Amino acid sequence: MRLLLIRHGQTPDNVVGRLGTAAPGPGLTDLGRRQAAAVPAALADESIGALYVSTLRRTHETAAPLAAALGLEPIEVAGFREVIAGELEARSDHDAVSTYLGAVVSWVSGDLDRRLPGSEDGHEFFARFDAAVAGAVASGHETVAVVSHGAAIRGWCGSRSHGSAEFVAQHPLENTGVVVLEGDPASGWRLVAWQGAPVGGPELDDNTDADPTGEGF
């Protein structure tokens, strides 16, 4: 099957570089809403049969224009939420961001026992995201779209798509960036496209924000 992983639009947390992972979380900024509005045209050539979102408000708001264009009702799945920051929640300092992203890098490298303070370890993260993806595959559609989050998408793709760990670590995934994979849980996933910039073009890219989860690890 074809799996489209879409990062949500810009939020106030992204603007200031804050780790905001608690539910339901903030909605989109004005720029984030414009980014979301550009998604349907960017994916017009995809035959999307189902659309999934996480439990966080920003994914619902990002998915809304695409859902309206496709005539689909987004399906909320908790497993697609962001890597949970735990005790690092709402922090933007270097130590917090380094600890957060360092844990994701460790998971991709195979150290699944590393735990974020007061939160999940790699075993728990991959178990929930894998289960969410498996549910999307079980829907039977040839192409599905998921609106999820920067660290979650990059961490899962770096681990689950063949030979992609180094590529994912080196390439950003900005708001409304889209990652395309093909395959299935049994045979594995192949990374076929990485649109790291906002799908609407340079005019929807905020180069002044301090967004940590969209940058290279």
Description of the molecule:
This protein has 217 residues and is α/β, with parallel strands linked by helices. It has a single domain, classed as Rossmann fold (3-Layer(aba) Sandwich), CATH 3.40.50. 37% of the residues lie in helices and 15% in strands. The protein contains seven helices and six strands; from the N terminus they run βααβαβααβααββ. It has helices spanning 12-16, 30-42, 57-70, 94-108, 122-138, 150-160, 165-170, and strands at 2-7, 50-53, 75-76, 143-148, 178-184, 188-195. The chain has a six-stranded mixed β-sheet. Helix 2 (30-42) runs parallel beside helix 3 and helix 4 (94-108) runs parallel beside helix 6 (150-160). The model has no long low-confidence stretch (mean pLDDT 96).
CATH class category label: Alpha Beta
Whole-number radius of gyration?
A: 16 Å
Q: How many strands, what sense, and barrel or not for the largest sheet?
A: 6 strands, mixed
Shape: globular
Strand order of the largest sheet: 3-2-4-1-5-6
CATH-derived architecture: 3-Layer(aba) Sandwich
Mean pLDDT: 96
The H-and-E topology, N to C, reads as: EHHEHEHHEHHEE
How far apart the termini lie comes to 28 Å
Low-confidence region ranges: none
What is the count of β-strands? 6
Helices and strands, with pairings:
Elements (H helix, E strand, L loop, with lengths): L1 E6 L4 H5 L13 H13 L7 E4 L3 H14 L4 E2 L17 H15 L13 H17 L4 E6 L1 H11 L4 H6 L7 E7 L3 E8 L22
Parallel strand pairs: 1-4, 2-3, 2-4
Antiparallel strand pairs: 1-5, 5-6
Please provide a brief summary of the model.
This protein is of the alpha/beta class and 217 residues long. Helix content is 37%, strand content 15%.
